[in-house]
Design a protein that fits this description.
Elements: H1 5-19, H2 33-43, E1 48-53, H3 55-68, E2 73-78, H4 84-88, H5 95-104, E3 107-116, E4 122-125, E5 128-132, H6 133-142, H7 150-160, E6 166-172, E7 175-182, E8 184-188, E9 192-193, E10 197-198, E11 210-215, H8 220-226, E12 241-246, E13 248-253, E14 258-261, E15 264-268, E16 271-283
Helix pairs in contact: 2-3, 6-7
Length: about 280
């Protein structure tokens, strides 16, 4: 579990319920702890590892489990700012029902995205990878204080007035899909990101492919006008927005673009993304 905010407020009730069923607990205190804890739990033979916290905590646990390579099921109790994992995997919002599902739900296979960089670095994700504007927002939000949506909204507005589209080339299954200035490119495994934005309405974490959404050369005013439509998936009506689906997606740019994975800042382009079908089991 992550150690702050909403998670800390929920934790007494969660711990009491889990303790009665033989669970053990570990708390994260810094970036990377979730990877190490999950990796160790998987190698120790735990059949179910539950991430209690925000989407960033879930991402760390996913990476720890997959690095271990052991058969283990992921459980999610979303209690962070964004909680897009809950939306993408249709998990209960109410705590009592969420706990019931974790203790007696069913396990289903889900796809996992894999980002790879030329220097050999790798990072798994279960929701999305973004390049450009949205990654710049994520980096700014990470430095912002506060709870709920306020830090994200402040970061979004602050980035809006400084960010400019950059030339990029995007390949889908080794073929060029887009070449030109982009505001952002999102590689999605599920429909939602950015605290409830329906960025890729048709994305499905069970279909074995990735969904690409490219926001082209949008000016500041145009971007501001179209941003609210993303929450309902209506941004796809903009002629400067293009989509594609594929098993591999590569993003390169003349000047490196910032990246995020599952909402967490994570390096720069160039990056190659691939889908790992049914790579992980999730308790739902």
């Amino acid at each position: 579990m992550s150690g702050g905010g909403k998670t800390s407020r929920l934790w007494p009730a969660v711990k009491d319920r889990f303790a009665r069923h033989g669970f053990e607990f570990a708390t994260t205190s810094k970036r990377g702890d979730g990877v190490e804890i999950a990796h160790r739990a998987a190698l120790d033979g735990w059949p179910l590892v539950v991430a209690v916290g925000g989407d960033g905590t879930v991402n760390e646990v996913v990476n720890g489990l997959l690095e271990a390579g052991a058969p283990v099921t992921l459980g999610i109790l979303n209690a962070g700012r964004g909680n897009d994992c809950r939306r993408n995997f249709d998990l209960p919002a109410r705590l009592p029902l969420a706990l019931d599902r974790l203790l007696a739900g069913r396990d289903v296979p889900i796809d996992v995205g894999l980002a790879e960089w030329p220097d050999g670095r790798r990072r798994h994700f279960v929701m999305s990878l973004g390049a450009g504007f949205d990654a710049a927002v994520a980096a700014r939000a990470e430095r912002s204080r506060g709870s709920g949506k306020a830090p994200y909204v402040r970061a979004l507005l602050g980035t809006l007035w400084t960010y400019r589209p950059s030339p990029a080339t995007i390949r889908v299954d080794e073929r060029v899909h887009f070449s030109g200035p982009i505001t952002a490119a999102v590689v999605a495994n599920g429909p939602y990101y950015g605290q409830g934005m329906k960025i890729a309405p048709t994305a499905d974490p069970h279909d074995g492919v990735l969904d690409l959404v490219v926001l082209g050369n949008l000016g500041r005013v145009e971007l501001l006008r179209w941003l609210p439509t993303v929450y309902r998936g209506r941004h796809l009506a903009n002629p400067k927005v293009s989509t594609a689906r594929g098993r591999t997606i590569a993003i390169d740019a003349s000047a490196p673009l910032p990246l995020h994975v599952d909402g967490e800042p994570c390096g720069e382009t160039p990056v190659r993304v691939s889908i790992l079908p049914a790579a992980l089991h999730l308790r739902v």
